[in-house]
Amino acid sequence: MGRLRRSRTHHSIRDTYRKYRTRNYTRDLDQIHDDIKPENAQKLKNQPLDPDKPGLGQNYCIECARHFITEAAFKEHIRGKLHKKRLKQLKEEPYTQAEADAAAGLGKPDNGKRGGRSLVSEDVAMADD
Asked: What segment(s) does the record annotate as region Disordered (predicted)?
């Protein structure tokens, strides 16, 4: 650029990235796993009319957590690559807190079954050669 630059640049805003990231936030995969459960899926499919949502909240893809304006746009989305990719991601079960604790070494130790087989004299005896 030349010597004179536009004055309306975001030079003094510290966290522009954070601002836009928060605005464009989507639901995480573990939240969507909860939505897919039958009791929650029925509520999301049969939502009341809401004028604030696209398509009055009637065309909602649970797997992608997106609203669509028309039924045609929703059906086009179902056939698309992004929806199929999300379905593949959702096949994997989300991590649980118990798995996270076990990975960190905080879980209870797995010492085998209680009252297991104790050593018998035959196990301890050495071969006579």
From this structure: 92-129
